[in-house]
Specification:
144 residues; alpha/beta; ten-stranded mixed sheet; 3 helices; 17% helix; globular
């Protein structure tokens, strides 16, 4: 089972820390893959969910390597990151998208058999049988 920390959260949502570089590094140091939100604006990469909050270098993204799954928040970020070796996907309201590594990323509450179940905590922590991974703010709960 692939365990993915949602924006660096591992044991509950800490909205003020989400996508903050040190917070992401902490989740990675605990052995998790982290789904991060990346923007590209003014020739710079940025982390942040609703808007670009934290400027970040490409060398930092490189350093995190296979430990991050990137949710490109704008098409510019998706285009640049997908041309490189990053694990990236882009979506707005689609029920499912395919990541650049071929995983199905399912919108919350859908049958995610064969793919990644996103935020099961919004549906009583129900993870469909056959899911290959979980992305959660409470990912520590699924480690057992």
């Amino acid at each position: 089972m692939i365990l993915i920390s949602h924006r660096g959260n591992i044991d509950g949502r800490l909205e003020n820390w989400e996508n903050e570089p040190t917070y992401i590094s902490l989740a990675i140091s605990k052995g998790y893959i982290v789904e991060i939100d990346v923007w590209y604006k003014n020739r710079t990469f940025w982390l942040g969910h609703d808007k670009p909050d934290y400027g970040i270098s490409q060398s930092t993204l490189d350093g995190w390597g296979e430990n991050i799954w990137i949710h490109a928040k704008n098409l510019e970020a998706f285009k640049i990151l997908s041309e490189q070796r990053y694990h990236v996907f882009y979506h707005t309201t689609e029920p499912v998208v395919i990541t650049s590594y071929g995983y199905s990323w399912y919108y919350t509450g859908l049958d995610s058999s064969g793919g990644i179940c996103v935020l099961p905590e919004l549906h009583d922590f129900n993870v469909p049988t056959g899911s290959v991974g979980i992305c959660s703010d409470y990912i520590e709960k699924f480690k057992k």
